[in-house]
Amino acid sequence: MIQQRRKFRQHQYSIIGVNKKMAIILGTLNEDNLEGLPENDIIQALDGKDIVRGREGNDLIQGNLGEDVIYGDQGDDVIQGNEGNDQLFGGEGDDVIQGGAG
């Protein structure tokens, strides 16, 4: 497993673990622009107005707080907006979209 921190537009996010099957990506308490890897991902955007793209693979994407825009893109994704007035888009594949309290 690899753990790394990357800067993206003045903010940091964490890639907690990566292997050939899955990546785990965590946002910050600020506005983030997060993009998954070509593999299966777990992406948690946390707080702020976030833009998230799952890309390829079967992804679990969680928006949490803030007004998020989430794109599942390709693959069979589970997209959870949670709190906030979110915009959720599936894409190619059999997706499950759960809006939440926003």
Can you offer a commentary on this structure?
The chain has 102 residues and is mostly beta strands. The chain is globular and about 30 Å long. Mean pLDDT is 83; it is low at 1-11. The strands form 2 sheets. A 7-stranded mixed beta sheet has the order 1-2-3-5-7-9-11, with no helix packed on it. A 4-stranded parallel beta sheet has the order 4-6-8-10, with no helix packed on it. The chain is built from no helices and 11 strands.
Question: What secondary-structure arrangement, pairings included, does this model have?
Answer:
Blueprint: E1 4-8, E2 11-18, E3 22-26, E4 33-35, E5 40-44, E6 51-53, E7 60-62, E8 69-71, E9 78-80, E10 87-89, E11 96-98
Parallel strand pairs: 3-5, 4-6, 5-7, 6-8, 7-9, 8-10, 9-11
Antiparallel strand pairs: 1-2, 2-3
- Cα distance spanning the termini: 35 Å
Tally of separate domains: 1
Arithmetic mean of pLDDT: 83
Secondary structure: helix percent: under 10%
Number of strands: 11
Topology pattern, helix = H, strand = E = EEEEEEEEEEE
Tell me the strand percentage band: 35-45%
Uncertain spans, ≥5 residues at pLDDT below 50? 1-11
Number of helices: 0
Largest sheet: 7 strands, mixed
Which structural class do the helices and strands define? mainly beta
Shape: globular
Strand order of the largest sheet: 1-2-3-5-7-9-11
- Oligomer classification: single chain
Rg from alpha-carbon coordinates = 12 Å
